[in-house]
Amino acid sequence: MNQPLFTITKKRLSGHLHSFQSNPLAFLSAMEEQHGDIAPFRFGPFQRVYLVSNPDLIKEVLVTKQELFVKSQDLKALKPLIGEGLLTSEKDFHLQQRRLIQPSYRKSHITHYAQDMIATTSNYISNWKDIEERNLTNDMMNITLGIISKTMFSLPFDEGNAVIGEPMEAVMKLGIRRMRSLLPLPLLIPTKNNRRFKQAIKELDQVLYHLIEKRRKESVKHKDVLGILMEARDEEKGTGMSDIQLRNEMMTIFLAGHETTANALSWAFYLLSKHPDIQEKLHQELDTVIGQGHLTPSHFQSLPYTQNIISETMRLYPPAYVIGRKADTAVTIGDHPFKKGDMVLISPYVMHRKSSFFENPNEFIPERFEHAFIKSLPTFAYFPFGGGPRVCIGNHFAMMEAVLVLATISHRYSFKMPEHHPIVKPQPLITLRPKPRIELLMEKRRV
Fold this sequence. Notes:
By secondary structure, this protein is an alpha+beta fold. The chain has helices at 5-14, 17-22, 24-35, 55-64, 73-76, 79-82, 91-101, 107-125, 136-153, 157-180, 192-217, 225-231, 243-274, 276-290, 304-316, 348-351, 395-412, and strands at residues 38-43, 47-52, 69-71, 132-135, 323-327, 331-333, 336-338, 343-346, 413-416, 425-428, 432-435, 439-444. The termini are far apart.
């Protein structure tokens, strides 16, 4: 049967965009399976897109020829929210900002933040009941929100959730629509979504600028991220960040560092609830290392299996499941020529499930990360935090946070999924969320 002219015309106009938007993970996986290292497709009538799925070619895009690429159009849709922050800025300005921000994530600072991670988690779960069903997805969002509010601004838990968490959630939902749209309407056009987006950004701006102004007037130095960034100085010019720069980087760190870790933790609890043998092995490690005492930052290095659980979780469900770049000039990757304006997609989700690098790639096997397994892989076979000059600046912070939150909760509770729980599937938004939200039956452990 012939297709209606309208349907054919619509397909010609949208290209593969509808298929990608409907199910990005299935679409990208199918493209790699059908076409191999470089899979061509199209977004809209003119945008050529290529999925690159070879570690050596990915290295060319993200490292050796990275200066020939810029961030993709979807992230630029977030500029009204995060401005020229580390996530969206380019070239020399990006390099300058990264140098200013890097000191916030030195090992000494992350160790200091670790105590806040443990304390925030411990306080949050202190009123949990025995044999209680908990919405772990919500709980992880709340805990990571509390941690980032404390480590960034020294805000207490309730205040951080009220003044930052609620408007940020609204912004993210609306931001996703802008990122997914082929032609997002300019914010000047007063549509309902545009008005809501601008109002939520306005609320966040009021909070952030108030915090910055308050700090400017104080004589005491703070050891949180905002305090360190306010002290940072350009090595050549000796200048610090303006209020606008501080606001942009705070918004960027919050956006990149809150939901990503929360989702990784939700997936970790989900996977552990489906694999009681692995959960038992986790409990054995925690009992041996912590015993009847309390978790401390110094325990982190003594929890290799807990770390492997997080690494394996991010292999199966990398929070940043796709990375986009646009060719800023004509460039050849491998033997393939790209024209200026061509879009390149790189998917950690696809790469992490390739059987050529991972035996039984769809199985949850934390043990695979033992014996320095990562070092045996090509650099871009496993890269949950991206790579190259734009690798996630908070990767060590995020790893420590995920391990310490998982250890704090798992030392005190065992958990299983109720029989009535619906099937959980990944929902690829800005990050890879579980859908529906994960609800687990939590039972206090007698250590």
